[in-house]
Amino acid sequence: MDRRPGLSARLKLTLSYAGFLFLAGGLLLAVVWVFLLRYVPDGPIMALGFVPNRSDLLRAFVPRAITALAFLLLFGLLGGWILAGRMLAPLTRITDAARMAANGSLSHRIRLEGPNDEFRVLADVFDTMLEQLESHVTEQQRFAANASHELRTPLAISQTLLDVARNDPTRDQGDLIERLHTVNARAIDLTEALLLLSRSDRRSFTREPVDLSLVAEEVAETLLPLAEKRKITLEVTGEATRIVGSGELILRMVTNLVQNAIVHNLPDGGTVTVHTESQYDVSVLRVENTGRLLPWELVPTLTEPFQRGTRRVRNDDEHAGVGLGLAIVHSIVRAHDGSLDLTPRPEGGLIVTIRLPRLAPVPSPNGSLAGRWDVR
After folding, report:
1. Do 89 and 119 form a contact (C-beta atoms < 8 A)?
2. pLDDT for 142-152, tens place per residue?
3. Any bridge partners for residue 242, and if so which?
4. What single-letter DSSP state applies at residue 38?
5. Which of 145, 176, 341, 349 is paired with 299 by a 20 to 30 Å CA distance?
6. What distance lies between CA 155 and its chain's CA centroid?
């Protein structure tokens, strides 16, 4: 932004210091005049020897007072310039770091030393902001690379199938169309998942009261055929607990969790338990499933896009998803100011615990709780 040039902060502080010192000197001289010199007679004073009157004192005092004021002014300018430079030195380092960040270098840190004053606090906050920005940019770059790779795969498969059909006109067209439909459906699912992830990151959604227990029951009813097909026991327990958020996003969050719990389970005889409850000022959703053993060091990577367990997503299962299930869940939880905890079960499987700010009832004057709610 183009702005007219102005005085620097250092020069303004210098002029302020010098002006204050000059004014203090002037006030001191005025005090001398008001409380001392005006009481000295101006005419001749009859006494033995020479006794100076007011005019004599003024002739001797005024030139030296002017000299003293000039010295105070010069001393104030020089000392103010030095002091202002020392005071603003941390601000110069912060400005240099901000300029480097504006040019794309997010790895630089100020690491200001010294007492815990306002400049130190500002520098520490700026370093924290740079660290978060660098982490976010790195995450976005990795996500963009993975998304490009994942989107390129179905396109390459489609191109290969079309090349085969063009080079072999006698090939079964029905099989080709079915495979193209499957590949295209996976590409559409991936694109919709990416759009949903972007939407939840932007927090561009309407908030409304949502009952987690009702959402859990709806998801369980929807995914019950899949659980029965895989011989998985699906159970919903707990109590009603309400939050404020997007009903659509919360439904997708719970759906992703339960579907992942069903798909990543034992081949036969596994269980999935969905539990809701209220704890103080939060609503808790817990999804626990049996399955294979998960090393502790791999659990944090499960919320990264296109990651599942120890390998990248490559599965022909129609319910395997596109590798964004827990990434979307994590994004939705953050958009609702909640927390997500992943804990591997000692006997195999995973426990996913989500805590969201609870919508607590506010009693009305007549004691009724209906229609009035308060976000805790």
Report:
1. no
2. 767 666 766 77
3. 211
4. G
5. 145
6. 34
